[in-house]
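User: I'm writing a tutorial on reading structure tokens. Could you give me a worked example: one chain, its sequence, then its tokens, then a sentence or two explaining what the tokens reveal?
Assistant: Sure. Here is the example chain.
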Amino acid sequence: MLVCLILIAILGSVTGLEADKVGIVHMHGFWQAFDEQHHLDFKDFVEEKTGVKVHLIDAFNDLAMPPAESSITPLNVQVPEILKMVKNIAAQYDKIIAVGFSQGGVIWRAMIESWDNHNVDTFISIAAPQSGQAGIPPKYLASLRNLPFVKMAQSQGKTMSEADMKLLPYDPRVQQVFAPSNYYRNPATYQLYLTTDFFPKLNNEVGNKKEKRKQKNNFERLRKLVLIGGPDEETIVPWQSEMFGFISADQNIIPMKKTKFYKKNLFGLKTLDKKNAITKCIKGGLKHNDFPNSSEVLNDCVLPAIQDVLSG
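And here are its predicted structure tokens:
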């Protein structure tokens, strides 16, 4: 009996040490704050089940004032600022697990690609438009129509057609004030998309060879990539973007392995796949904001990924 108790104590302390050496850094999405209930639920669940501390990033929350400090801020401003915070957290651990919900998943990928010698072991992308947004969700459309220069044009009797609205996210004035436009990628207007400043660079579709090589090397440092999403998603267009798939100009779905990102291995997606480092966890019946604290997602997708890190 005494021997059993000693073994339990030893094993328990080892597990605790492992948990202490791993930290989870969680980035919220667009139009959200770090302390919203579904993110707090995520934190509580993970810490209770695994003992691993979850750091919810308190930055660029919701539509905070001034606008330069909110989730609407352009991503080429958000990413370096958040990365400073993340590096301070990561320095406390041997390994970290990156978790990004929605826009937070795009931000996390950008941080990983720009962070040399990072200690991100596993990247969990939750309902994030990793291949971009091919369409404009209705709730975003209303925000675009309320931009000052759009309202001014309308007040002068100019109408915005559906075709005009599809081009609007590429407008530099929108790119500078509306973060979701930074990963807007309409397949029918690909050349125009390439003129934007953030997403084509992140995907290594443009840029110099040195920067492309750096971003690819950093992404390939990941041991595991976990992609979480589902077909009843109403915000990400198409939902397959959450799995690094996309849609063609003639509206045909392109699976991950048929995309240019994968076939040309632009930033290391194919490399990870060939190492069996990519896990796809697809869950039906969930709307966009259901994913962060869905018990099915947490138990079937998130928990196994964290336990895999702890057992490594």
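What the tokens reveal: The longest strand covers residues 95-101. DSSP finds 14 helices and eight strands in the chain.
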